């Protein structure tokens, strides 16, 4: 169980790292990538100002700040402590903090070269999105730290806020689609690292609860795919399609995390039992002793004196 989960976490985490590099190179370092994303920014600047969608996006974006980040860090740590799983609470808080910090560092370190003769905001360092990373990391941290039976409920409660944050950044013209996708990949990579560490420490165990999360995750993926197909068929604008893709990426991030830890109890209060060896060693039990089948030797009586 521990080895399988560690292997799956490592594979998904490595795939996130590779995808992050690919998104960065394609979206920021190719003419086609910059042209497509500048078109999204142009559309946001032309269509959104003064609309109800823009006002809603700004309100949603205003909910993310330092106070939100600190409250989330304290919250997941407290949940872990209340459950008697301080290690898990610390790792969940670590996912949130590392995601936010990595995003801030990358915005200052990575470069967006000027490849187009014209365009908008070509020289800004907006990759990846800090608002998206914070919202998605809080969702991931809560999903990791709550009891397994409440994960799906927690995801449903936080989804409108967390999954909508990336769409809000594009709607308001604050970020390009690749910025939000990069943030999703960063968060998922750190969540996989936390699960991998617990698995390597032997701090996970299989639960006996119904495994319905994967069904819900697959159904959500099918629903998102159906929405995207419908947008393409009906000829909706590229701006709407780009926001749908941003939302689909967020749903995929959440679904992947839920599927990875489906049916798994993280950092249980009692360590998983160790299988008994064939000889019973390591279980604390004694091997029953066998009685000897040989009879005791007879003693001849002494002759009379």
Question: How would you describe the overall organization of this protein?
Answer:
- This protein has ten helices and two strands, in the order ααααααααβααβ.
- The chain has one domain.
- The radius of gyration is 28 Å and the shape is globular.
- It has helices at about 1-30, 30-45, 50-60, 65-80, 85-110, 130-145, 150-170, 175-200, 215-235, 240-260; strands at about 205, 265.
- The chain is about 65% helix and about 0% strand.
- By secondary structure, it is mainly α.
- The protein has a two-stranded antiparallel ribbon.
Compact summary:
The chain is mainly α. The chain is 66% helix and 2% strand. A two-stranded antiparallel sheet has the order 1-2.
